[in-house]
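Posting for a labmate who doesn't have an account.
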Amino acid sequence: MKRMDASRRGFLKSASTGLGAASLAGAHQVLGAPSDRVRGGLARQVWLASITLGDFQPETYQQNIELILGRMEQVVPYKPDIVCLPEIAPFMKLRKRPPLAQVAEQGLGPITRRFAEFARTNRCYVILPIYTKESGRYYNAAVLIDREGEHAGEYRKIYPTVGEMENGITPGPTDPPVFETDFAVIGIQICFDLQFFNGFKRLGEKGAEIVFWPSAYCGGRALNAVAWMNRFIVVASTRFDPAKICDIDGGDIADTAYRSRHWICEPINLEKKLIKKWPHSAKFEDIIKKYGRAIRIKVHEEEVWAVVESLSSDVRVVDVLKEFDIEEFRAQNDLAEEMYRTQRVHP
């Protein structure tokens, strides 16, 4: 970690005098430098892209694939690390969907290979929601394609709708997988999964830092809720606008309403942790005095927690928390749950 020079420390000392306890008084109070004053790169910045199908009117799924790939090309100048597509993207906006037996794939099939080519050419991951099959069963799934254009894994929708099951879709396993990419540990949920929450909770327990949510509907405030309840980024990719990205504190980062362009491609800083404000708030000014522009602390007064974010490639949040003896939110809750199990008296 790099320390600031003496003159900068002097400036921060005088400036911090004005912060005091009052600086923590308002909801969403921010301590530290605003991001537009940050110099240098970030330790863990990732470009996340999501598209919607809002204005498409395809006649066939082949035509829809071409339209989707064309929209994906619009995010290429931003060099995304990953592009997420809506639920069963090739078939979502068709007036009549083809039979499952005709289009469901296993591994890299004809449909998947089109998107694998995009991933390989543009050196990015792609989340492709399609129908898949195995052992005579069909799934509403999301296939993860890596930067090499290879099949990297598959998530199967835990909670298909009644209509889907009546039409032959099998519910996926209740323990969703996480995927280790070169930028983060990620998970996936699909559409109706948002009505049940436990899949999101399990992904958080398994260490997911970003959860992608391909869907036929927009999700609204429920997406913000699962983001802050589980302390991870949520990325929605939906049939209609708006799709959005939610931060670990439940706030909106970006959505497709911007310029009505039906896609998002945003840089996201993953070097951040959510902590409980109490009993650690007394340490916040000391952290800012030491790290200055390298650290930002966003305090949520009503929720009594805060987000500690590194704005420097030289500073890792986990090291700062360890230095100041601060536990992450999840670690404190895990300890409490363990004590509940061991100390609760059962009748």
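Reply:
Got it, the structure tokens are right above this. The longest helix spans residues 329-343.
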